[in-house]
Amino acid sequence: MRLQAEGLAIGYPGGAVGHDLALAVGPGDILCLLGPNGCGKTTLLRTLLGLLPPLAGGVSLGGERLERLSRAEIARRAAYVPQAHAPPFPFTALEIVLMGRTARLPPFGQPGRADRAAALAALTRLGIGDLAARDYSQLSGGQRQLVLIARALAQEAPLIVMDEPTASLDFGNQARVLAEIAALAGAARGDGRAVVLTTHDPDQAFALNAQVVLMKAGRIVARGAPENALTSAALSEVYGVPVVVERTQSGRAVCAPTLARQSAPSITSEALTIT
Ligand SMILES: Nc1ncnc2c1ncn2[C@@H]1O[C@H](COP(=O)(O)OP(=O)(O)OP(=O)(O)O)[C@@H](O)[C@H]1O
């Protein structure tokens, strides 16, 4: 499923958040969106999914303009993993995952045995099958995040859009979810799903060998392979702190801010002397 956006301006009735945005992903591609807090990543994802209307330009999904597609048709083509939140009603984790099957049912259809099996399989695949009967609103932030990822897996859509999918996950679950993303894209076979994700960790773009779109203040400032887009200069400029990009012995790239020591105390000892 190909997702394409051109000349996109994004934002809210109160004002624009981003301009001149263009991107494209297809089967087997992983696109990693990076940029500082508030630069417009979530707003862009929501616009790409038709949850927010573009202020200019357009988005096409599978060759058709988004505004021509019904919500159900968009849901058959694209699954969304939003940042984890607690809903007002006490659904079980399994019920939340079953919601991912809704777009696949006929109008007014109820999920059947196959849908429950698919939902349970998605929970099990993420190592949280034991949470199926638990109240979603009482789960931890990381557990909720995994349930939302399971919902997207159960949806079986060819495009998966994930907003900070690893943000509240522990070290092991971060690695597990990244491996899942790589498997979904099936990069080696080239016949996988298309994945778009946001992250605050540039190392993940290297680990996934993803295409990168680096944003600052609503504009794209670098794009391409991580080696080209995520240079020390680009990361330092965008995040406003000195960043070094180094290779470990195994060849893995690691991006780290340099924690410069404060050069001089701002209050001298004389100033503190009581006279
Ligand atoms: N519903 C809204 N109405 C008006 N402005 C909004 C709304 N949601 C977000 N914004 C503003 O749009 C800008 C971009 O926000 P957005 O959530 O897209 O950033 P982000 O890059 O995803 O940030 P973060 O990394 O902190 O999640 C911010 O200035 C934010 O205050």
UniProtKB/TrEMBL annotation:
Domain ABC transporter spans what residues? 3-242
**Which SUPFAM superfamilies does this chain map to?**
P-loop containing nucleoside triphosphate hydrolases
What keywords tag this UniProt record? Answer: ATP-binding, Nucleotide-binding, Translocase, Transport
The record's PANTHER family line, in alphabetical order, gives:
HEMIN IMPORT ATP-BINDING PROTEIN HMUV (PTHR42794:SF1)
**Protein family:** Belongs to the ABC transporter superfamily.
Q: What role does this protein play? A: Part of the ABC transporter complex HmuTUV involved in hemin import. Responsible for energy coupling to the transport system.
A Pfam family recorded for this sequence: ABC_tran
**What are the GO MF terms of this UniProt record?**
ATP binding; ATP hydrolysis activity
Keyword DNA-binding: yes or no?
no
Specify the protein name: Iron complex transport system ATP-binding protein
Annotated TM spans: none
